């Protein structure tokens, strides 16, 4: 049994899941991101890793983008946006941060796999990924992959697709983005 079989299973799952994402929610998130002063990205575990990769591309686009919890991350204020990724939508620390962001007049975009969760009730816009959460038994969605892999892969590809749309809107290109990439490496 070769790896190609498993790659195709993953790609098929991704194709189905990405096509089920509500485009209107994504367009609303893009509209909020375009207007944002600072953008903060928050998530734990593998979701946090996907969030970091989105923050990096936003930085390459010239956005003031930060990862919550890092030493040099500044304060969130009116006009800023928090993007919170939580498959379950219930992780306490993430819920608290989303509430805090709202209390400072920030806008909140949720990337979640749980349609009616605490995070979706707090967020200004929720992008729901129809994939299992880390506790697959509690989820309405199925995947052959372990835990929340399909959700995590989906947010990576969704965020990269959002970057392409933002690049088109801002007439941004690869060369300009590369100039903003770290030169201390
Ligand atoms: O690391 C995580 C992952 O689901 C493992 O597949 C989670 O993102 C992390 O444990 C936080 O949970 P959620 O808030 O449900 O994303």
Structure description:
This protein is of the alpha/beta class and 185 residues long. The chain has a single domain, classed as Glucose-6-phosphate isomerase like protein, domain 1 (Rossmann fold), CATH 3.40.50. It contains seven helices and five strands; from the N terminus they run ααβαββαβαβαα. It has a five-stranded parallel beta sheet. Strand 4, helix 5 and strand 5 form a beta-alpha-beta unit. Helix 1 packs across helix 6 and helix 3 runs parallel beside helix 6. It is globular. The chain binds the ligand O=C([C@H](O)CO)[C@H](O)[C@H](O)COP(=O)(O)O. The ligand O=C([C@H](O)CO)[C@H](O)[C@H](O)COP(=O)(O)O binds next to helix 3. Ligand LJD2ZHX5 binds next to helix 3. Belongs to the SIS family. PHI subfamily. One of its GO terms (biological process) is carbohydrate derivative metabolic process. This is 6-phospho-3-hexuloisomerase.
Topology summary:
Blueprint: H1 3-19, H2 23-35, E1 38-43, H3 45-60, E2 64-67, E3 81-86, H4 92-103, E4 107-112, H5 118-122, E5 125-128, H6 149-170, H7 174-179
Parallel strand pairs: 1-2, 1-3, 3-4, 4-5
Helix pairs in contact: 1-6, 3-6
């Amino acid at each position: 049994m070769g790896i190609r079989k498993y790659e195709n299973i993953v790609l098929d799952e991704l194709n189905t899941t990405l096509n089920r994402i509500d485009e209107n929610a994504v367009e609303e998130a893009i509209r909020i991101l375009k207007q944002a002063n600072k953008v903060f990205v928050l998530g734990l575990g593998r979701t946090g890793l996907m969030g970091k990769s989105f923050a990096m591309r936003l930085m390459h686009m010239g956005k003031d983008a930060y990862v919550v919890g890092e030493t040099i991350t500044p304060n969130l204020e009116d006009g800023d946006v928090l993007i919170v990724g939580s498959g379950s939508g219930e992780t306490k620390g993430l819920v608290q941060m989303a509430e805090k962001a709202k209390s400072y007049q920030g806008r909140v975009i949720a990337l979640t796999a749980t349609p009616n969760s605490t995070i979706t009730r707090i967020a200004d816009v929720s992008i729901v990924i129809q994939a299992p959460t880390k506790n697959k038994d509690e989820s309405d969605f199925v995947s052959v992959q372990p835990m929340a892999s399909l959700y995590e892969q989906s947010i990576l590809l969704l965020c990269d697709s959002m970057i392409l749309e933002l690049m088109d809107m801002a007439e941004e290109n690869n060369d300009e983005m590369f100039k903003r990439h770290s030169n201390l490496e």
